[in-house]
Amino acid sequence: MTGLKQSVGPQFTRIHALGAARGDLTVPNADLIEPIDSSDEWIRQRTGIIERRRASKGVDAVDLAETAAREAIEKAGIRPDQIGAVLVSTISNVAVTPSMSALLADRIGATPAPAYDISAACAGYTYGIAQADALIRAGAAEYVLVVGAEKLSQYVIPTDRTISFLLGDGAGAAVIGPADEPGISASVWGSDGSKWGAVGMSATFEQFLDGDSEWPYMRQDGQTVFRWAVWEMAKVAQQALDAAGVTADDIVAFVPHQANMRIIDELAKQLKLPEHVAIGRDIATTGNTSAASIPLATHRLLEEQPELSGGLSLQIGFGAGLVFGAQVVRLP
Asked: Catalytic residue among 257, 260, 276, 299, which?
């Protein structure tokens, strides 16, 4: 009788490098206030956003993903053909099928690596990290490319007062690979479909095609999302620290999804983070980029504070669905 073989990989994984790309247009609050009958001060107080980055017409999310991916691969010092899987977290693909990940894999020279998209919105990057860690340790891939890429401006209508002024365009990429010591903790992830309508689209595409609605755009119930994000996600963040076997004193950075500056500050307060912990606040000049926000904010933190490299960072994503994911990672 022939024994069945199962794949086995390395014991530990880590993020080897990050890449980033932001929309080419800088959009200040002043450009958005008239349609929503608001003010620059109101947007800053409510969200902490001064300006956001958006991509020009003709620049798609996959273009941003390619730029970010190429930077991450170059920094990691690997060849594209060493990538054993390409995972793209996005809600911005221009087509239902084929996947953005398959196109990205071809563009960067990673074909025939398996490639698939992850539809987990603002938690998508943390979902990708969890899956990359598992794939490598299972022996299914040597290196995995994880990308969060969004062009949310294509789902904005200027008169929406719930979320339109929050949204930006960008992509962040990470190369995950084997490591000599633990670099990615167990992930705390999940979903709460009972709040399915709290943040998402204004209508279905079927309703649009039937003439029953205008082009679907992003919208949210702000108070529901705020309360859920602050109170429930603080618990998830603490669970992630516990699962990693560390405390807030052991981390050097906290990078939550860049949903709203008030949410970021409240989460930090709930977690009682020490003063030495650097907090990602990329939202002020990039906006909310959903699945791209955590890698973009982490990339910026490391540019501004390179001494954080090698330290532990707590990251948590949360949003549409409602879905959430958190883990502690070692910074590249």
From this structure: 257
